């Protein structure tokens, strides 16, 4: 697909992509969408799919047709622009239609971000200090409790700047989970906030901070796994799948995407095992 695009870098590894599509490409896609609409339309006086195109086009909602044109063109054109500029987006883009007029190029603007570079520093020293502190506070801690101390130290010591887009996306994901739970209890977010002597904005700010810390820790652990050259063997993934018990679940887990996810979980586990063994 011919594509005219412009890349602008913003702070925090955030970028804007401006790209336009020639009217010729838009028109080709419009004709294909209309052709499918004609096939699916059952118009009185005509056999299904046999009504004249002009009649269907006249009666159809052109906005909906162009909406489907955009749905078909945007993913492909955005992917082409990303490839053209060799970007590695960490999030689905926020896309704005700049202009979409007939007989003129259609122009769009997409905003997304890449993951920041993690500079680990003396992460082993931070982990050891955190473990010493944990032992002073309480003896015989579980691995999970030890890691909580380590996690706090790693987040504090690592000057990792996350893109706002990434933090907001994680905050919204966490809030969506909260809202789903509240809905089951027939509670609103306002009621939940009030019951905890907080405002809705305070709850959102807390979830934003939680989301930021969660993302930072995830990226730091990935970097540590890379630094330790931790690799996961297929046999480890097979073992984890086999331990799921349910045969239907085993089958669902045994796909390339799920196996890749499991490998990521195991790499993180090995990184945590290494950190908690430093004490």
List keywords for this structure.
10% strand, Alpha-Beta Plaits, 4 strands, single chain, Trigger factor, domain 2
Could you explain the architecture of this structure?
By secondary structure, this protein is of the alpha+beta class. It folds into 2 domains: 110 residues, 2-Layer Sandwich (Alpha-Beta Plaits), CATH 3.30.70.1050; 154 residues, Trigger factor, domain 2 (Orthogonal Bundle), CATH 1.10.3120.10. The protein contains 11 helices and 4 strands, in the order E-E-H-H-H-E-E-H-H-H-H-H-H-H-H. A 4-stranded antiparallel β-sheet has the order 1-2-4-3. A hairpin with a 6-residue loop joins strand 3 and strand 4.
Structure summary:
The protein is of the alpha+beta class. 61% of the residues lie in helices and 10% in strands.
Distance between the termini: 57 Å
CATH class of the largest domain: Mainly Alpha
Write down the Rg: 26 Å
CATH superfamily of the largest domain: Trigger factor, C-terminal domain
Task: Work out the helicity level.
Answer: 55-70%
**Number of beta strands:** 4
The count of domains is 2
| Largest sheet geometry | 4 strands, antiparallel
Category from helices, strands and their pairing: alpha+beta
Strand order of the largest sheet: 1-2-4-3
Average pLDDT reading: 92
Principal-axes shape call = elongated
- The name of the CATH architecture of the largest domain is Orthogonal Bundle
Low-confidence stretches: none
Order of helices and strands: EEHHHEEHHHHHHHH
According to CATH, the fold-level topology of the largest domain is: Trigger factor, domain 2
């Amino acid at each position: 697909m011919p594509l005219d695009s412009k890349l602008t870098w913003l702070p925090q590894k955030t970028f804007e992509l401006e790209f336009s599509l020639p009217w010729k490409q838009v028109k080709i896609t419009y004709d294909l969408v209309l052709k499918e609409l004609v096939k699916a339309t059952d118009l009185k006086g005509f056999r299904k799919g046999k009504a004249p195109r002009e009649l269907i086009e006249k009666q159809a909602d052109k906005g909906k047709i162009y909406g489907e044109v955009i749905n078909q063109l945007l993913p492909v054109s955005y992917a082409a622009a990303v490839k053209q500029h060799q970007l590695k987006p960490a999030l689905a883009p926020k896309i704005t239609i700049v202009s979409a007029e007939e007989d003129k190029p259609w122009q769009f603007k997409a905003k997304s971000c890449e993951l920041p570079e993690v500079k680990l520093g003396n992460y082993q020293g931070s982990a050891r200090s955190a473990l010493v502190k944990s032992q002073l506070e309480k003896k015989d801690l579980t691995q999970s409790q030890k890691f909580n101390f380590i996690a706090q130290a790693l987040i504090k010591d690592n000057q990792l700047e996350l893109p706002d887009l990434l933090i907001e996306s994680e905050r919204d994901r966490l809030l969506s989970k909260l809202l789903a739970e509240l809905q089951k209890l027939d509670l609103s977010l306002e009621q939940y906030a009030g019951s905890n002597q907080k405002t809705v904005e305070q709850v959102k700010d807390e979830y934003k901070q939680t989301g930021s810390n969660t993302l930072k820790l995830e990226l730091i652990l990935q970097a540590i796994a890379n630094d330790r050259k931790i690799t996961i063997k297929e046999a480890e993934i097979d073992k984890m799948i086999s331990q799921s018990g349910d045969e239907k679940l085993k089958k669902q887990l045994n796909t390339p995407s799920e196996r890749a996810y499991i490998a990521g979980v195991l790499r993180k586990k090995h990184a945590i095992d290494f950190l908690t063994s430093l004490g």
